[in-house]
Amino acid sequence: MQTADDLETARDLLDHANIEIGIKEDGVWTVFFTRTCGFLDPQSSKCTIHGTERQPRICRDYSAHTCWYRHAFASTLSLQLIRLNAARLDWILAQVEFDETGEIARVPDWDLMLSELSAVPLGMSAVPVRDQNELGAAVSERVPLTGSEQPPANLPQSTAILAFPPGRPAHLSHFDLIRFRLGFPGVSLGVTQNEWYFLVDAPPRRNGKISPAAHCSKYHLNEESARSMVRVGLEELPRIEVLCATDRSGLITRHPDLAEIRSALSTASCGESRT
What we know:
The chain is an alpha+beta fold. It is 29% helix and 16% strand. It contains eleven helices and eleven strands. It has helices at residues 4-13, 57-60, 68-72, 86-95, 110-117, 132-135, 155-158, 175-182, 223-228, 237-241, 258-274, and strands at 19-24, 29-33, 81-84, 97-98, 104-106, 161-164, 187-191, 196-201, 230-232, 245-246, 252-254. A hairpin with a 5-residue loop joins strand 4 (97-98) and strand 5. The relative contact order is 0.15. Mean pLDDT is 83; it is low at 131-158.
């Protein structure tokens, strides 16, 4: 965070459901998408793919004893992370001072934020991902994605699909992180000619609309990108992974273009239909 516009962008993002922002103890601000993993059994709280090939390596290597997230999210305020909703960020905005150019000149002390924000409840709960028929391009809880489904041309302004780069992997090992993230309801991968994005379904909290002048407009794809984008789900990801050219170390030297991706997904869909 360096400018007034940066802070306003954070404030606009918090006007979307399922979006939470955290300030880490080192001063880094991070956006979190607050959903429960789709592979978690709601009755037993157990992982339904534990010990199988489908379980991401991130989960297999997880240690409850050293995990930063476990300690940071144990409460709404911790020594490692201050979690923000709109009300808490509004308090911070009132304390920040800017210079004549809009650069941040002074921020409230960390201990002061811990003290004052403890009285402001976080009060956040996940909003169910909407039905695919309602949004066209939105990701539903149970409906699988297909790469042939294209988001509507008016995606940037008429829906609440937020696009977060970078989604393009630099190494084959990075596909494990992509698999992990696509396991959460409301998350998909959007591939354009120049970038890969993580798309999240985060409906606006105010009147169901997004202002065209919102600071977070940079997290909405422009109409051209939305129209040409290929949307990839978890089950389709392996078909994209094998199209990447790599060196001996696994470093990706070439990513497939849109035509290759569409062809691979289309061929696979035809084969499944015949089966």
